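[job 0412] stage=complex_fold ligand=magnesium ion status=START
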Amino acid sequence: MFKINRQKMKAVLLLAGMAFILSACSGAKENEGAEWTFFAMDTYITLNAYGKNADAALDMAEDRMIELEHLWSVTDEKSEVTAMNRGNGDTVEVSDETADLLAFTLQMASQTNGALDPTIYPVVDAWGFTGQENRIPDVHELNRLLENVGYSKVKQNGNEVTIPGGTKIDFGAVGKGYAGDILADTLTDGGISSALIDLGGNIQAVGSKPDGSDWKIGIRNPTGDGHIGVLSVSDRAVVTSGSYERNFIGEDGKEYGHILDPATGYPVENGLLSVTIVAKQGKLCDALSTSLFVMGLDKAIDYWKRYRDFDMILITEQKDIYLTEGIRPQIELDETWGSGRLEVII
Ligand code: AMP
Ligand code: MG
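[job 0412] stage=complex_fold status=DONE, emitting structure tokens
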């Protein structure tokens, strides 16, 4: 039976207008699946699992998600991220999960030449993207804050982390993807071989639909409502970044998005509207969706040509769509969307 976690009923109603997962509720017989929705990591989370252990597995997954949120929330005084950020040059010991996530984030920061940088946090905060009112910081304030930005200032030795005073990190760009991997493992360990995890648009598909066919995932239209197409995947994560997700109009009438260029401290403005990454690991998808958005079209294509261990969909302001070749057979584009070209990257 499809069961909705009772405390979270309101979230479900809201989500009904937000979510677009064509197959999440359609593939299984009623008595084979369970659906839970709850709020964590600043987003609505929907978990669909199939099989007779579905409810018990989802219960474990929800508990796990709450644990991870307690570890990584920058606004939680007791989180491990807060402890690291308060270290002021002293070494802080963190859990294995946090150590793993930090090591991965620092590795990706280095691999993307700092396009991904978890120490950008104080600048994100200055723009008001951490919950308070949005504002446009002046260039002096940004330059002052940028003195403490730089992922190489963070020192890690296993579970021991040292962050100098003034430098602060957050996992806003990678944490949800990593949580998706952990939830997928939790469900698999709980005996589930078919599930769909939706962390506010970060999708993680465990196996295929119960009938063996691919999950159908809508790729959001970055310029308005609806979708640019539908992607068919099994056992993959699909993660999108774009400034349309969170932005504000400044007093100067300009739009400012939540993904910042760590080189300048300003919101990215490079002609890309969204970057969707498709790969096995959610953490890789999340790290790359943010950093390739920062890089822009040409550098993102160069990066893909160098690594080729993921697929991507890039959408530009001209409404052109760039797809990597591996994903071409899996995507069905909406013919009515946009007027731009379709370019396959090989
Ligand atoms: P995502 O939605 O995964 O692209 O992550 C965006 C979030 O990561 C933002 O809301 C900020 O909290 C943070 N962020 C913004 N720019 C960067 C950046 N260049 N590197 C790392 N984190 C960033
Ligand atoms: Mg990301």
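Residues 1-31 have pLDDT under 50 and may be disordered.
[job 0412] exit 0
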